[in-house]
Amino acid sequence: MTRILITGGAGFIGSHTSDLLLEAGYEVRLLDNLTPQVHGASRQPPSYLNREAELIVGDVTDASALDRALRGVDLVLHLASTVGVGQSMYDMISYVHNNEVGTATLLEALAKRPVARLVVASSMSVYGEGLCRDAHNRVTHPEERSMQQLRSARWELEDANGDLLTPVPTPESKPPSLSSVYALNKYAQERLCLMVGKSYGIPAAALRFFNVYGPRQALSNPYTGVLAIFAARLLNGRTPMVFEDGNQRRDFVHVLDVANACRLALESEHDGEVFNVGSGQSRSILSVANDLARVMGRRDLKPHITGKYRAGDIRHCFADIEKSRRLLGFAPRVEFTEGMAELAEYLAGQIADDQVERATQELASRGLVA
User: What is the pTM of this model?
Assistant: First the structure.
């Protein structure tokens, strides 16, 4: 029977992917350090973990833990990563160590113990601003917004003449534009895996996840996905905090669709490729905050638009998933309203430690919120 190792396998995406792979008849081994930022101070395995999956508690930066985890493994899904754009801008050593050194440690282990396939989780953050069209309908790669523009609360993307740009779906062919330490980490992770995989004859692929949401997301982690952050606020009777004017657009993809993309990539024969994993639809952050308040029965908690900007944030980015459809057979199945209703049902039984204001103050004290 084929055995798959999932690094970071006790987390949000890893646990759902583990469930899916076990149902498909694979053996699954998980390597996870049960970091307190995700799993709480007790660092206990979460109750949602599938008992059929083997859990090794260890860190991806620990060569001896990796040696144990890789024994008898055929395929590797590398999800282990410290996640958070804002936090990465001040906790730089930790992010580079966990994400880049961790990936390099895994790859050194794989050089000694090759597997049949490696899939690494990357992120839409590598794109920076998403693809746009200008007033003449020409495709353009937007520049990062200047501090002068942001201080003037001119949030929308502009060309060199100050004319507005129109966001369009972003394909994998868009060149990277790395606007945060986290984005740099994710690009390094994907390039390391593809480069070393090619050198050592290990077929590899990278998945660029967009905004993943769904049950099991870490609600007390103020640097995780925006829907989980909003949920933590609402569960504590507080209004969701929305930066800029709330009209920035993102692609929200359900975790079950992401788990399916992971399986498809592990089973694919396409080598050295990068794939977008999103819904192919865009929604404003403000509309999503209102949608979540509605399904949670908290229409009274209207989003608070801060009018502030965080270092490393981008304005618009949503996925063109045509390549993933064509080469992986990927097709999102969970419609947004269905996914939100499921999320609300899950949240009804949860308790969240709302750390959003503390995290925002942490950024502001370093001049990273303007």
Answer: 0.94
